[in-house]
Model the fold of this input.
Amino acid sequence: MKYLLLILFLSGWVVSCDNPEKFEDVLYFTGTDVSPIVKYSLEEPTNIGLSVRASAKVSENIKVGVKVNEKLVEQFNKENGTNYKTLPSNAYVFEAKDALIEKNKYASEPFYLTIKSLDSFKDEDTYCLPIEITGVKDGSLSILESSKVMYVVINKTIITKAAVLNGTYFSVDFDSDPARDLSAVSQITMEARIYVNSFQNNSPYISTVMGLEENFLVRFGDVKIPKDILQLAGGGYPVSSIDAVPTGQWVHVAATYDGKRICLYINGRLNAYTDAPRGGINLLGVDPSRTFYIGTTSNDKGRTLKGNISEARVWTRALTEAEILNNICAVSADAPDLLAYWKFNSWKDDANKNIVVDYTGHGYDAIGNRTISWVEGVRCP
Done:
């Protein structure tokens, strides 16, 4: 990558020498010169300081108008494949109308977006508030068009608990609803947040996240694959991640199949894929002995995941990269095409301390091999 950047730099230098351009000083929101999106994860009400900046020290006082423009949220979602909600009006205060950059300075004094309450925030939603530079009131500088709007993206930090998988695993019966045929699902997404303490050190070095043996199984490692490499196995079209997954931290992993391609995602970003013109996914298992498991496989109970799990889901649709990234911490239980959803933050009840409820209400509860243990204080993101 260093060499590539150097080549690009030298190429740009040659072009600039042959075709010299006059660079104009411009105004933009501080922090948006690379991206107009700034993200915050909040645990409590807070003041978010904002400012307008010039690309060079100004030679005169510069005053610009600033305002909230909630109408831009819908347009932003369409252009970026997101599903952000407009920040509720009762959750914030934004009183600034102008920003002043004084002569011989680079940036204005900060003005504030005050998040006064998180009471109306939902765990599964991410909120957006576009703040716009409306124009230059005093001064001669122009506005950098790509940074004319700052999209302040906010979600509520979720503090919950997660299930410990060190020797604990779960089975799911996808044949429990006779009205729903899941023997040949044309599209699928499996995803979960996991915290790996250590990967398997004994052959075949497999640590299982979730899925179906010999069909569609999300796991780590194999005899010929490093133990920390994410893999989708089964069905004749295996694919392995380019990047290794670290231990000692929470990581979101996902595998999708859209009928043509299998994709692997790590922390919401596409990491590897393979073309896979295979048939549908049989969530019932290729035979009664190879059904759906979380944390191990039906074939070998020793292929466990040594760590913790949270926010595991199965969808009957291949989610997009934006959808996976936006929904890492939580989703609505009635989201379209969400087949099963295990938050892994509580057991069913005191009489069933080995069962995790399917939040969708479809009845696909995850049944553990023993009483569940928990890790507390898990934050997302």
Summary: The chain has two domains: 24-156, 160-380. The domain at 160-380 is CATH 2.60.120.200 (Jelly Rolls).
